[in-house]
Amino acid sequence: MDLNSKIDTKNLPEHIAIIMDGNGRWAKQKGKLRIFGHENGAKAVKKVVEAYAEIGVKNLTLYAFSTENWNRPKLEVQTLMKLLILSLKKEIKTLHDNDIKLNAIGNLKALPTMVYRELMDVIEITKNNGNRTLTLALSYGSREELINAVKQISIKVKNNIISPEKIDESVINEHLYTRNLPEVDLLIRTGGEKRISNFLLWQIAYTELYFTNVFWPDFTKQHLQEAIVDYQKRERRFGKTSEQLS
Ligand code: FPP
């Protein structure tokens, strides 16, 4: 079912972030290896990328690999990295066709050289696509991001580039990986767990959260539309009262 008619195109979230969870359990349910879940997770990524562009959302950020994911069995990590390279190579056309530029956040230098190079290549190849941004969070951890920001700001304070009194939200924002992205309006987590797992902790202060039991490989355009319809029913008060807003 296409829920397009239920979506108010004037009130679209400008930036959606997704914690793609449940690949392993999806595979287990089918009596398959976890890797099979990731392969089908990559197929869901392609469909959802096409869907967010079609719906008209400008920014999508996907949590593809966390700093903690390095602790998974070596074979699973290797396979995920291979899958990333394959998907990046394969989906350049999808990115061009949908006028999407690729972006990445995280400790990218920790990625295997082949992944890093492919990622940089696709970022370069798609940099003139003007309309939409797809950000992959890779080797990403929010606490690490904040630690880095604190370190960079401290060095600037030490060198008299910033005075401590001038440190405000915008200074912090400028030192995060997400510095060029707008606020996250809607965060979706698939797979039934209700936690944030070290993702965009600072950035989601006023984000609307949406949890669904659907495992990531089963997540479709319709599920994305359902999340947006749900988002549009909410009143975002940013700490104010309803009366102040109206
Ligand atoms: C979480 O499921 C998913 C991941 C850790 C990896 C996400 C990767 C993909 C969707 C595939 C490739 C990505 C791109 C961008 C092409 P899980 O393994 O934690 O599932 P579980 O909670 O059921 O074990």
Short description:
With about 250 residues, this protein is an alpha/beta fold. It contains nine helices and six strands; from the N terminus they run E-H-H-E-H-H-E-H-E-H-H-E-E-H-H. It has a single domain (about 15-145, about 185-230), classed as Decaprenyl diphosphate synthase-like (Undecaprenyl pyrophosphate synthetase), CATH 3.40.1180.
Give an account of the 3D structure.
This protein is α/β, with parallel strands linked by helices and 246 residues long. The chain has one domain (14-143, 185-232): 3-Layer(aba) Sandwich (Undecaprenyl pyrophosphate synthetase), CATH 3.40.1180. Helices cover 42% and strands 15% of the residues. The protein has 9 helices and 6 strands; from the N terminus they run βααβααβαβααββαα. It has a 6-stranded parallel beta sheet, with helices on both faces. Strand 3, helix 5 (113-125) and strand 4 (132-140) form a beta-alpha-beta unit. Helix 1 crosses helix 2, helix 2 (34-55) runs parallel beside helix 3 (74-90) and helix 3 (74-90) runs parallel beside helix 5 (113-125).
